[in-house]
Amino acid sequence: MSAAEGDRVLDDAELLEQARAWVAQDPDPETRDELNALIVAAEAGSAVAIRDLHARFDTRLAFGTAGLRGEIAAGPNRMNRVLVAQAAAGFARYLLDHAHGETPSVVIGYDGRKNSDVFARDTAELMAGAGVRAVLLPRMMPTPVLAFAVRHLDVSAGVMVTASHNPPNDNGYKVYLGGENHGSQIVAPADSDIAARILEAAKGSVSDLPRSEAYEVAPESLEAEYIAATASVAGTSAPRDAVSFTYTAMHGVGWRTAAAVFARAGFAEPTVVVDQIDPDAAFPTVAFPNPEEPGAMDLSFSTARAAGSDLIIANDPDADRLAVAIPDPESADGYRRLSGNEVGALLGWRAARLADESAGPDEAPFGSLACSIVSSPALAAVAHRYRLDFADTLTGFKWVSRAPGLLYGFEEALGYLVNPDTVRDKDGISAATAFLDLAASLAAEGKTIRTHLDEFAQTFGYFASDQISIRVTDLSEIDRVMAALRSTPPSRLGEVAVSQIDDLRDGFGHLPPSDVLRILLEDGSRVMVRPSGTEPKLKIYIDASSDEGSVAEREATAVARVRALADAMRALTA
């Protein structure tokens, strides 16, 4: 995350003074002991300890539209109970200031990561102590259940303690708003308004903040309501038990809820990846609990091979993302994980067909399909063919979920919103339900997801995509690359001329300001360049398509264009 405004390099005396003040207010013995050890070492002259303290205290995790996310450790530039208390106090102040004379309310959820339950209870106590009606979910649950609860309980706001698919020692704090925001994640200017109140709370000691145990605990029936609403996503009449699948929760909290949804929807009982099915904050079988990462789905592949599964369904640790894999005899694993763009396009086609079927015989379907600007243009092609509106948004479901008349939205990072009337955030469980329903419908016609992908290419064209992630240790390197692209924009990428470059830094058309460059090429291909919002990475997204020739010829043309552009971008950003 970016640094907070006003960060500065402290001199060593001030550094130690702030570290001691932090220890004095820290209610967590683990982080107190950790910081005390650093202070002692720094006082003894350890340069390593002093550097470590500067890394923790010269800046702080900034609160933005993605909330907070970082490594669990002591200090303002880490995730810990002090920082969470400051965030809760600041957010409570924001809710009270916008309550218009009524008592504001917040529902709080948490996943199975280290300290998630502690951070959630701290938030509930501090919210209640500040005069906000606080409702705590009864146990660890998926992020989509919290997003559902904001709307279902009609509360002012929601807080989810999760770091989603980040490394094991990270945690985070996601914020939603009810009312006119309909349960979506926050956007500007709410983020800066909340951040200002957090910084104000940080001026004092969290030990002085009022706490109360007079918060509510949501009934178990809340999850049952989510399960019923999500199971209804499988709305077709096709037999649903004909498709066999393997499921993994990737050591997260998805299985209990997902299993109930799948059973209620009538799907066959899945084969589970036993070693990953229960929540485990250590994530022992994956170095990086993200289905997109190399190796993360290896256990799923081996389990599915043994079971002969038709599909693999994977949720990330908080179950807001979905990964799908299909049998592939050409792969050494026996399965191929579909890209987020492939799943997004197929679910978008399903949504468009359902909208078309629900319209009258002489009526055009109503509503819009939406995806982030870095996601595949395939969804726009679907919307056009079915006479639906299309919206491209900035990256993140805080934007996708706000598209007017939304029927369906996705982003390429394995995020899908298939039931916007129920949840206004990406939801890996409802998306899995929709995808399994699609697979069942195809099976009833003697088809598979693999053949359906070919049908998509024949109907709309073949859309190829690739992504380059350049991880850095120095964030200024990202700034350098973006500045270089702006000051010396390319006129060609490989053999293809650049036709237009859109700089979104000051906003562009209907899009708010964002640090994004969109490079359009004469053959219709596209390259997007932006810094990651949650990790120290520069991300490059490449898309190309072809609608000429057979499916195989379309694929070959589009894939070749993407590969050439990827080579050109690697050379340009080296």
From TrEMBL:
Its cofactor is Mg(2+). The keyword Kinase does not apply. Pfam families: PGM_PMM_I, PGM_PMM_II, PGM_PMM_III, PGM_PMM_IV. One of its GO terms (molecular function) is phosphopentomutase activity. Gene3D superfamilies: Alpha-D-Glucose-1,6-Bisphosphate, subunit A, domain 3, Alpha-D-phosphohexomutase, C-terminal domain. It comes from the Bacteria. Residues 61-201, 225-325, 362-458 form the Alpha-D-phosphohexomutase alpha/beta/alpha domain. Residues 472-548 form the Alpha-D-phosphohexomutase C-terminal domain. Keywords: Isomerase, Magnesium, Metal-binding, Phosphoprotein. GO terms for biological process: carbohydrate metabolic process; purine ribonucleoside salvage. Belongs to the phosphohexose mutase family. This is Phosphomannomutase. The lineage of its organism: Bacteria, Bacillati, Actinomycetota, Actinomycetes, Micrococcales.
